[in-house]
Write a structure and sequence with these properties.
It is a single chain. This protein is α+β, with helices and mostly antiparallel strands. The protein starts with a strand and ends with a helix. The model has no long low-confidence stretch (mean pLDDT 89). 31% of the residues lie in helices and 31% in strands. It has one domain: Spore Coat Polysaccharide Biosynthesis Protein SpsA, Chain A (Alpha-Beta Complex). The strands form 5 sheets. The protein has a 7-stranded mixed β-sheet with strand order 2-1-3-12-5-15-10, sandwiched between helices.
């Protein structure tokens, strides 16, 4: 049996976080997986960049598409941990700092719309950010195209769905589910680092 074939897609604006450079060097150096890194630069808007990655992935012979955004830095063992779950779509946990709190970009839907959901370990969610997401090839083959799109629902074009939520709905329509691993915390290198803040908040709550 051959090595798992993982197509790493990093659409970017010309800058890659140092942590991800180190991750890539580690992954390729280990030789554990058959890897390809695809990093289209300065492709705008972002949904177009993701669709370009989708096209390149389907033209390859790789088994998994791993979206890794330029400034989202997961732990170095993230590929091992995401592959081990063996589910159609699974993300590491990216967070944003909003209104004085860390909010996971993993959401569940209720009658009022999508809401952030904090879980424990691997849980099914209705959508996640695609910043650190592993997707099986059968999903990308079966989702309706375009798989990624910004949509506006009001006359000013300022309210609507991100390409992440649009894709999640395509995944459901194709008969699959999305999962998030809450044990995999990703850092973000542009804004205030979320990992040290998360550690401080955890220590404070345990103290």
């Amino acid at each position: 049996m051959g090595k798992p074939k993982v197509f790493i897609a990093t659409p970017n604006l010309g800058e890659i976080a140092t942590g991800n450079v180190l991750n890539l060097l580690s992954w390729f150096g280990e030789g554990k997986y058959d890897l390809r890194w695809y990093a289209p630069q300065h492709v705008k808007p972002w949904d177009r960049a993701r669709n370009l990655c989708h096209k390149a992935f389907l033209e390859s012979d790789y088994d998994y598409l791993f979206f890794l955004d330029e400034h989202t830095v997961p732990p170095v063992d993230v590929i091992d941990r995401l592959l081990a779950h063996d589910v159609p779509v699974v993300s590491g946990t990216a967070q944003i700092f909003k209104r004085g709190a860390l909010i996971p970009m993993a959401l569940r839907k209720d009658e009022d719309g999508y809401r952030p959901h904090w879980g424990d370990g691997l849980e099914r969610v209705d959508t996640t950010t695609l910043a650190c997401t592993l997707i099986k090839k059968e999903v990308m083959e079966r989702v309706k195209r375009p798989a990624f799109m910004f949509t506006q629902t009001d006359e000013w074009g300022i309210e609507g769905l991100s390409e992440d939520i649009f894709f999640a709905e395509r995944v459901v329509d194709a008969g699959f589910e999305e999962y998030n691993d809450y044990g995999i915390l990703c850092d973000h290198s542009i804004q205030t680092s979320s990992l040290p803040l998360n550690n401080l908040l955890t220590e404070a709550s345990n103290g």
